[in-house]
UniProtKB/TrEMBL annotation:
Keywords: Hydrolase. Residues 205-335 form the LD-carboxypeptidase C-terminal domain. InterPro entries: Carboxypeptidase_A_C_sf, Class_I_gatase-like, LdcA_N, Peptidase_S66_N, Peptidase_S66C, S66_fam. Belongs to the peptidase S66 family. The keyword Nucleotide-binding does not apply. It comes from the Bacteria. Residues 16-131 form the LD-carboxypeptidase N-terminal domain. The keyword Hydrolase applies. This is LD-carboxypeptidase. It comes from Micromonospora peucetia.
Amino acid sequence: MTSPMYPPKPRPGDRVAVVSPSAGLPALFPHVYELGLRRLREEFGLEPVEYPTTRVLGADPRDRARDLTAAFADPTITAVLATVGGDDLITVTPHLDDAVLRANPKPYFGCSDNINVLNHLYRLGVVAYHGGSVLVHLGRPGRPHPLTFDSLRAALFTSGWYDLRPAPEWGDQPGDWRDPASLAVEPEMFPGEGWRWQGPSTMVEGRTWGGNLEILHWLMATDRVPSAGELAGSVLMVETSEELPSATEVFRILRNMGERGLLAGFPAVLVGRAKAWDFDRPHTPDERRDWADAQREAVTRVLAAYNPDAVVVFDVDFGHTDPQLILPYGGTARINAATQHISVRY
């Protein structure tokens, strides 16, 4: 494995690429997209640059790969932000020009299906960033979430250590993008209860890897994940999407990682807060609590079998819930179970 390399950071006033390597949802929800672009300009002082497929639904994977490669190749572009996730980015990464990506490393921000790109960059030795969707996070209804924007600002512009903080409030019920009026209404939030810690009271420092659990399963099926040896000593981060995989499915995916020899090598595991609501499954608050409890039990059970000595932190806000903390992907994280602190190096 190539030694990890942190790309140079942008500065306010720079041009940054805004791309849709997964789904071209700006074509369907331009009001959400334009809000995200406006905040990118006003809150961060960055000038977004669109590419031909940014607002195109169903663009050919080769065209999306061409745009992503072009964003890295352009010397006037200093960072690359994905608009949103999707479900077929796995067909795009084989068409990327790895020589261009290696020669022109830039901070890449994305989550959900963008794990395909984050993992691809990881295997090229380039540190990327989990989080920062233009539609979901920059285009959040009502107002930006302070924790999301604070960590995104730090990840964009700074290179030092950043202390993650438990969210004082959280939510997992987004507004309906089909209704432009929904952008005026802040999402429903619930009181935060802090992180939940399991395992030994020790400190772990290592490179981060992982992301959305469903996408990781696809990557394992296509044999595109690093080897157990390459990942040994890393910090695993896992979270689940709006497809709401059951606790049984979560257990089985992690069990497959264990059988592949991956789980035993992670001295620490960060588990994102379980998303437990979607439009076709509008769970009540009590049902959401039960859902999250079942997810935590599934993770605990599989780690007891494959890595009982791991430090495990549940309910870290880095997945498909709100707020979303930005985590370096392939960068360094420090998990101190004795003091119950998590720091990342941007």
